[in-house]
Every structure is written in C-alpha cells, then in structure tokens.
Write a structure and sequence with these properties.
The chain is an alpha+beta fold. It has five helices and five strands. It has a domain of about 120 residues: Enolase-like, domain 1 (2-Layer Sandwich), CATH 3.30.390. The protein has a three-stranded antiparallel beta sheet with strand order 3-4-5. Strands 1-2 form a two-stranded antiparallel sheet.
Amino acid sequence: MSNNEGKPVSSLFKKISAILEDGLHVEKSGYNSFHKYQYVTEADVVAAARKAFVKHKLIYHYTMEEVLQVADSPGMCRAKVKFTLIDAETGDMMHSIVYGDGQDKGDKGPYKALTGAQKYFLLKTFLIATGDDPEADVETDKAAAAPTATPSSWRKPKPAAVANGGANAGVADNDY
C-alpha cells in the first residue's frame, strides 16, 4: 500500500486505522458533585487505550515541554505536552502537541494539566466515543440565548480604529 506520492504507508497509520475500526467507547463513570455533571475519567480512557495498544502493539510516551502559570487566575496551569506514538514492531513514530489546563490551590495544577492533555490526546487521536455532544448542551444554549446587552448599549468602533487595521482597538474614547 502507498500514499499519493508513491511512498509506503506507515505501519503506524495502519494500526491507528485499525484502532479506529475497532470503535472504542468509554462510559462516563465519574461524577462532579459540586457542578453536578458526569464525566469520563482519565483512568477509564487509559484502560480502553491500553487494551487497543496491546492488541495493535503500540506504545506512547510524553514530554512536558512547558508549564505556564496563568497570571490572572490563581492556581491555573497550562501544560504543553508532546506525545510520541510508536509502533512497537517497526519503530515508526508520530508526534502530537496537546495543551492541557489544570487548576488547584495547592501544588497539583501541573499534574491536572498533564492528566487533561493525556486524556484528550487519547480521546481525539483514537476518536474514543464518550457520548458527549457539546452542541447538545441545553444549559449553555439557554445562557447563550439570553440577552446580555440591549441594542442601545452596543457601540460601533471608531472609523479610525478600523482604518488603522485595528491599531486603536481597545483604546477608551467616550467622545463618539
């Protein structure tokens, strides 16, 4: 098998395709009692991925490339994580950069950010179904539909701000 340029298709991509064909699914077993919602746990995602990885002889590892503290949000961290997916039989590799956010009043913010990045790397790379549909969030839709400002409070940008390519955008000027 070859790609459009006549090069052989990576065995790694064939194995990813086989995992997609398997159609992984993870149930929401976690519950956030404070915000009252169910969620897919990192442990459940890892367990599903582990089975697929063993079956198809794949491994992965990660490197935390950067951890940032969000200045205006105490305890909030953002981690930039590089995941490397490896075909254990051929050594073919694929790298992915994923960002994760974590918030903790103590010292666990970076770990939570890493956990989030890992969870979403696995979920999105292998299209693991969770039953989530962000577009079906009724509460968010209600909040978005609620008027937040009356038309009389809306303001058009000053012509100079638009003509300058937005150079004056954000400058307070109450004279117009």
